[in-house]
Design brief:
185 residues; alpha+beta; Peroxidase, domain 1; Glutaredoxin; 2 domains; four-stranded mixed sheet; 8 helices
């Protein structure tokens, strides 16, 4: 079975359990934390991926990291996943859970990249524009790219609006390269 299906199946099971118990929003916050911890910690990923480390040791590592910080259902689920030898899939499962949670609640994930940090008014304006376009609630992630000359790049729902200055310069360069105004004689 491929990783995508494993991640999706485990995430779906967790989402159904969390909805049944009414804690799906809390578990979504927990899954964000699991995803970020797994993304930032290379040693943790190495421990979870190592088949020679026993499951009880992996559970102890997971408990040391997450008990007291995550909801009880999330802790029980993490233990279950580790005991089923799927600890290597924890990050993928957390990402799949978040995608399924957003889909079931009508939330669209939007990513805004700018050269400088934006203020709250600009964040609200972008959120409102995307909400009007998609008809769904927006979860906006904004971050800066110091290599960007100016402008912004907005991605949501597999769409991208590219208003970066570098992109506009590239388009102008391509138009001038055509040189439609020069006589071909």
């Amino acid at each position: 079975m491929n990783s995508y299906r494993i991640n999706a199946n485990y995430a779906k099971a967790l989402l159904l359990l969390a909805k049944d118990r009414g804690v799906d929003a809390a578990v979504a916050d927990d899954m964000k934390m699991v995803d970020s911890v797994c993304a930032e910690n290379r040693e943790l990923r190495a421990i979870f991926a190592n088949p020679t480390i026993r499951a009880d040791k992996k559970v102890a590592v997971s408990d040391a990291l997450f008990v007291g910080r995550l909801h009880d259902e999330t802790i029980a689920f993490l233990r279950f996943v580790i005991r089923k030898n799927r600890a290597v899939n924890l990050r993928g499962i957390s990402q799949a859970y978040l995608a399924q949670y957003r889909d079931s609640h009508g939330i669209v994930l939007s990513d805004l990249v700018t050269h400088q940090p934006i203020d709250d008014n600009a964040r609200r304006s972008v959120t409102q524009i995307v909400e009007e376009y998609t008809g769904r609630t927006v979860e906006l992630n904004d971050h800066t790219d110091p290599n960007m000359l100016g402008g912004f790049k907005l991605e949501f729902d597999n769409k991208m609006y590219d208003a970066r200055i570098r992109t506009k310069i590239r388009k102008l360069r391509n138009e001038f390269a055509k040189n439609d105004y020069e006589s071909k004689l």
